[in-house]
Amino acid sequence: ETYAKMFLTWFFVSLSDGCGSEQTKEGTLAMILSMDASFYDNGQLMSVFVETGLQVALSHFVDSVEDLDEASKLRVMLVGGNHKLDQLRQYTATTKANINIVSSRKGYSSAMAILRYLSSAPIEFSLGEEISDNLGVLRVLDLIVSRSVQCAEDRRLHVEMLCASKTLMFALMSKLVPRISSYETTSIAQDLLRNCVDFCSHGELLVSTSKVLSEYLSVCIDYYERDDSLLTSLVNHLEGFLRDDVLDLTARLVVAQSTVRKLNTLRRSSDQGHSKKMPVDSKCAALVLLIYEHLWKHAYGSISGNDSNVCQSILLVSDILAFVASCSSGDEDSTEISPTLKAQLVVDGKGVYKHMLNHFLLVREANFADAHDYLIASLAESPHFLFLIAGSKEAVHHVLNALNRSHTLGRDVPLLDAALASLIRLSDANLLRMILDFVVNDESKLYQRGFVVKVFHLLIACANSQDLHPIIRDKCATLVLTTVGLLRDEGASPSDVLLFSKTVITLISKKELFLLSGRDIAMICCEMNRLFSETENADPLVFKSCCGVMSSLIAHYPKQLYGCPSPLFSFMMAIKCHLLLIGTKQGLTQKCLEYTKLCELLIPHKEVFKKYVVGLILKYISFLNSGMSPITKSKLIPSIYALLDMCTEFETRQINSMIDVPSRALFAPVFQSYKKYYQYHGQA
Question: How confident is the model at residue 116 (pLDDT cuts 50, 70, 90)?
Answer without folding.
Answer: confident
